[in-house]
Structures are given as C-alpha cells and as structure tokens.
Design a protein that fits this description.
heterotrimer; A alpha+beta (about 350); B mainly alpha (about 270); C mainly alpha (about 290); B: about 270 residues; mainly alpha; MetI-like fold; two-stranded antiparallel sheet; 11 helices; about 0% strand; globular; C: about 290 residues
Amino acid sequence: MPSSPFIRVERLTKRYGAAAVVDGISFDVDRGELLTLLGPSGCGKTTTLRCVGGFIEPDAGRISIDGKDMTGVPPYRRHLGMVFQTYALFPHLSVSENVGFGLRVRGVAGSELSSRIARALDMVRLGGFGDRLPRQLSGGQQQRVALARALAYEPRVLLLDEPLSNLDARLRVEMRTEIRALQLQLGVTALYVTHDQEEALSISDRVMVVNHGRIEQLSAPWELYNRPRTRFVAGFVGTANILPARLEPVAGSLTLHVADRFFLALPSPEGLAPGDVWLVVRPEAIVLGPADAPDGASGELVAVTMLGAQFRAAVRFGGEHLVQVDIAHGGTALAARVGDLVSLRFDAGRIVMLPREPT
Amino acid sequence: MGGTVTAVRPMRVGLALLRGVFLALFAGFIFGPLIVLALWSVAQQWFWPNLLPTSFTTRWFEWAITVPNVLRSLQNSLFVATLVTIATSIIAVPAAIAIGRYEFRGRTVVRWLFSVPLLVPYISLGIGIASVFYAARLTGTYAAVVLAHMIAALPFGVLIVTSAVEELVPEVDEAALACGAAPTAVFWKIILPQLVPALLAQAGYVFMLSMDEFTLTLLVASPETATLPVQMYGAMGEGYLQVSSALAILLLLPSLLLSAVLARFLRTDLHVTG
Amino acid sequence: MPQGHPSRRYVASPNLFWLALALSPGLLIVVGLVAYPLGLAVSNSLGLARGQTATIAHYLAFLSDPRSYWALLNTFALAFATTAGAIILSIPLGYLARASRRFATPVRLLVTLPLAVPVLIAAYALTLFFAENGLFNSILVRVLHLLSEPLTISYSWPGLVIACIWRFFPYTGLLVISALGTLDRNLEDAAASTGANPLQVFRRVTLPLIAPAALTGGILTFVSTFGTFSIPLIMGRSTEVLSVMAYRKVTGGFDWQSASTIVVIMAVFQIATLVGLRGAMNRWVVR
C-alpha cells in the first residue's frame, strides 16, 4: 500500500497585485524526505515555504500536512520548526532559553526541559554555550542555535529559508553537511529553500526548480543535473553548453546538426522527432583533442582556466559559439596553446536535447 | 631636495599646534560658562578684578535646600516629574507600539499628529495652553503643570518607543510563532522584553524633560505649584547670584548624569526643546 | 518575490478596538491640548473669541507697531545668525574630529555636552561667563592683557547670538561631524590627484557632499533658536524677540489676544521656513 504524502501542496497561488508570485504550484513531500525549492530570487520559492509555514495566506490552493488541511491554521498550531536566513534568535534570551522556548510554550518544565535543551544543544555541538547571549556567538554558531531551537520540540516538519546564505563559503559547505546528517538522523520531513544550485544538489532527496512562480522540474539531484527537462533548468543547474541544433532524418536514423557546423549520429534515436532542438552538454561530457582528430568539430582555443580540480577550456566554434570544456590534470589537450585549432568530441551518451522554437 | 623636506615639518607642527589651540579654545567656550556657574555656587566672595573666588562656602546649597519655598519647588519638581513620567508612559507606549508595529489606515496622519508639538514654536504651545488653562481656571494647579509637561514630553516618548519598535526584526516574531507561541505570548515574551531598554530610556528622558521644563511651567504654574527651574528664575531676577547658581547646579547634575546614561539610546534630533 | 515585500511581515491583522484604545489617550492630548489651543489662538488673533466677525485688525496692529516689527526682525536675525554661526563652527570641528582618534572623542563629548544642559541654565551660565566683570573678561583683561577695557557681551545682541550658538549649535555640529567622518576620503584624494588645491577640494567636493547634513542640522538649530524663550528672557535685556514679547503681553495685563497674534505669526513663519528649507534641500539633494 503506497503511503500517502506527508505534505501535499495543491494548486497553490499567491498574487501581489496583478502578478502571481506563486502560480498554481502542486507537489508532494514524503515523510522523512528533504525537498529543496531551488530558484533565482523572486521566483516564488520563499513565498511557497512561507505559505506552508502559515505566515502567508495563499490566494488559492490547498496545503495539507499529515492528511490535515492547513487552511486557516495559524503558524503556532502547525507544529513546525523554522530556520531563517537571518537566524532570528531572540536577542534578549540566552542560548538555552532560545532553544527551550518551543518546549516551554508546550508546557515542558523542570528537569525534562533542561535535559531536552541539553540534548538539542549537544546535537548541534554547542553544549556548554547555553548561558551565552546570541550576540556573543559567531554567525555559524547562531545558525546552529536556530537549528537546535527549531528541532528541540521535535516538529513534524522543518522549514529552512536560505539558512546558509549569511555564512561564508567554507562554513556553508560544512553546515549543509551537518544539516543533512541531522535531518537524516532525526528522520524529520524538511523543506529547504535556496538559490544555490550546488547546495541544492548536495543536500536534497529531491529538488524542485521554481521559476516565475511555476515548477520547472521536480526530480532527484542526479536526474536534475543529467536530464534537465527545460532550457532554464539546464542553464540554472551546473554549467552547461547550450547550443542550437537540428535533428534530421538520415537513412532511417536521425542526425544532429549542431550549429550548422557538424553532425552527430545518434546511437538510439527512439522517441525523437526531426526538428529544431537545444543541445545541452556539460563541460565534462566533451573531449578536447588535436585539430586533426577524426569525427570532431573543430574550433579555436580561446582560454584555459585553472579551476582547482580540473582545467576548463573555452573553445570558439562556428564563429559565435563559445563552448566550455573540462580538461583533467595531465590531459594531453593541455599541450594546446591559446589560438590553436582544436577538436571537440561530444559524448553522445551524455547529451540532452530540448525542444526549441525554430528561429 | 632638502629644502622641501625641512619645509614640511614646520607645516606639520604648525597644523598640529593650530588644531590643539582650536580644541582648547572650543573646550574653553563649552566649559567656561559651566565652570563659572559651579564657581558661583560655592563662592563666598568673588569680586572684580579677582580671576577666581577668594573664599569658598557650601552654604548656598544648604540655603537652597532649607529655604521653605525652594524646598517646596524641589518637591513640586519631583512630584510633577514622577506623575508626568508615569502618565506619559501609559499613554505613549501603547501608541508607539500601535504606530510602529501595525499597518492601519491613517497611520501616517497619526504619526504626524504626535509630532505636531515639535513643528510649532515652543512658546506657541505655551501661550496656547496657558490661555486655555486660564479660561478653564486651571492655571496654577498641579493638573495644569502636569498636563503642560505631558504635551512637551509626549512627542519624544512616542518617538523613542516607535523607533525601537520599528527596529524589531519581524523574523524574530515569526520564529516565536513557528515555535508554537500564540500572538499574545509572542507579545509578552518576545516583543515587550526586547523593548525594555527603549522603555527605560523613554521614562528617563521624560523625567529629565519634566525636571528641566521651564517655559510652559512659567506660564501655567502659581508660586505654590512652581517647579525648581521657575524658582531658580525667580532667584535670578532678584539678583541672588550664588543661590541661583547653586539651584542651577542642583538641576544640572542629574541632567548631565541622565544624559550620559541615555546618550546610547537617543538620536540627536530628540534633544530639541525650547 | 522582491526583498522587503510588505507581506514578509507577519502582523496579525490589527484589532480595531485595541488600536483605538492604544491611540486615543495620546491623540486626545494632542488634539485637546495642542491643536485646540493653537486653533483657539488663531481664532483669538482673528478676534473671533468674543463672537465678533473675523478681523485682521490684530495683525495690522501688530505689523504697524514698530516694536513688534523690530521683534520680528530680531527673531529672524537671531535665528539666521545662530544657524550661520553653527555651520561655520561645525565645519572645523568636523575636520578636527576626523583628523585623528585623539581628537574625535573629546570633540564629540564637547559638542554633545550643551544638549544636556537645560536651556534656562545655559542662558544663565553664559550670562555669568560673559558678564562685564565675568571670567571671560577677566581672562582677556587681567590675565592675557589683550584688552584694556572689558567687552560688553552679556545682554547685548552678540551675547544673545553667542548664547544661542552655545546651546543650539550641537544639532548642526553632530550631523556635520558625522557627515565629514563618514565621507569617503578617496573622493577628496581623487580630487586632489587631479590637481585641485585644498581650498578647491573643499569647495567643489567636500562642501557639496556634507551640505545635506549641514542643512538638516541647520534647520534644527534654526527652529530651536527661532522659538527659544529662555535665552532671550535672560540674555536679551536690550533685544526683544517675539517669544518674550508674547510672554510680556500675558504677564503685563493678560492681553491674550496680542499674545495669540504673536505666537500664531511665529508658528506660521516657522512652518513656512521649515517647508521652504525642506524644499530647497530636496532640490539640492536631487541635483
């Protein structure tokens, strides 16, 4: 018997004036799942989260949690935990009092209160910081307190609104690992809002890409990266070369004409129809070779940039198209100099084609 | 070029000297009058051409606190200031929270109304209420003095608390709501405690303003209800230099003290009083 | 969703009953004890109090009386002179405060100090300090031997201006000092690097950049001086200003009509000045 979804959002709509910030979004979140809402600022992801939290009343649509309709239920009766970008710690309360606030409101007192506060603080590795005031802590520590505060009363859903955006890059990576580990360990259902695609890919069970108040794609991180379903997703998640191309029938099979420069025979053309497409190919799915390599497109090497784990080359081909290509350390292509002619070979197994309006 | 190198140094020294002299003159300008006041309050004898008093005494202070009508004005001042502080707090704090926290129609108008007393000249306020009190036969009563002070204090009380309310971070309320606290609990446990410094600053400021208020009091008080500044003005008029200086020092010291404490909470534009 | 959108703020829809309860006592005081008396003063000055028809006779009488004419002039002259003095004093203080950390704190403390002194006490202290046989003259005549005769400052027009500057310049001073302190020094360095001499840098770069702060502070100083009562009451023995004149109308025979006329004229002039200066400032800032 399939378990019913824990959070169900149906045709959620929120307008400000004439503009719909959230435009009929529907999705489900399973129990214990971490779903990330990813999108550029202003796309409606935060509004969606705040509707789930009960801070914004939607204009239309329905949100239910654990089978119960949340319409008209104020935030303080939804039994949620929320973590804010600005931490939003109670400035006049100590760390312990912050963490214990939700427990106290629920009537927990005495030794149970203190032991649960201590457990929550240990969970975020802040045992011993209980007597400090929020302003005496670093940004990372403050966000840990916020996390402990949101989890201390064991909410059924954890909402995180850009929780790492105010932290520096290194701390961000560290904290996201920690948040994910905690979420898995506690098994709490979580909605996570971010504009950082790398964060979204690394932390989530599934990612929902939102743009202009609509869902562009909702899938697991691997699929999102390797099988983007819209041009927006392809461009927003990871680095992608997006080239205009055309599928043409050739002797019972299909051939891809890329930027009118070269052809690519497709190994498995099932389910594809002739026509204009966008060709999406990741930098790591292209191999750079010497100019005289067979069955490659030729182009001019414009720049080579060191990225740490690998190099990235920019190759101009077809006059106007700049293609990014990864080169591993020790790759033979590194011998090429800027200005040299090189060849590009696309890994036909890793390309994605998306429909394109003919120009 | 040795010439330019040596030329720079005297210029530097000259500039430093100029700055030092300017600061000293400015300090003299600011401190001078206050020092003279302090000296007069303890001077036994101070006649031209002596630079400083030739003998000192504390008897002007003893005088100031033993002479019956002075003592009475001091009591009046404390009594009035206490009443004004309590009444203004009761009125200003809820109003400020309403203005700072809620969106409602006419909010801008209400905000503007509370600052009207700051827009017109102070003496206009004074003559206005004095004539109303005169017509209502309230002149000379404690009620008149307290109400007059409240008019002067209310805009500041509202302003101080409103700006503190507006600085509250809305996410903090939301965090409390998310934690399960109902709006009433959020108000008492989260919002009000954050406002405590502003409430204390407001009370301190209003108390000080009432203690120091002179113009309105002069217009609405009688000799029986006169506060210390009015009494001091009387002593000045009668030429009791040392006594009025001692009274001035008595008024000034708590003012300075409270200002130092409040300086952290207040913005410059809150100091405007006639 | 744009940042800072109004709906980011979760505020329970205001309960009208509580809102009215919270606001009405304060509004009652403002309306009953400020707006009503001012309205009454206006109607008094128009001669409406005694059930007559409106007349501008009181205003005509006021304007045709040389004494009130001079008082009006004095009041404006005092306010402008004080404001000008405050700006002129504030700029070198601003430079001094930003010259080094050693100066910044003492300057700021000295500038703030007069604000904590009740105006009446300030007036009295300055009168004593600048008296003919006061400490200031003693130092000039007896210690430094710069003068043979003491200067008459207290009770004179310059004395009045000096006293008003002492008590009211900090509004200008604090804003100018902080404007100079937070000014991006690179702008001045950039101007200097293009070959501008220090005076040109000041006139073309620094001054325009601190002008909004100087004007805002100047307005506060102006308004405070314009309405001040205690200082001219103590210091202005030979110089009558409107506030003192209105007070004397009341104490010398309860002439509420004349007093009302004067304070209404003051209120109108002050509001007109505020509106005018604000308009000028807005144009300045926009430009």
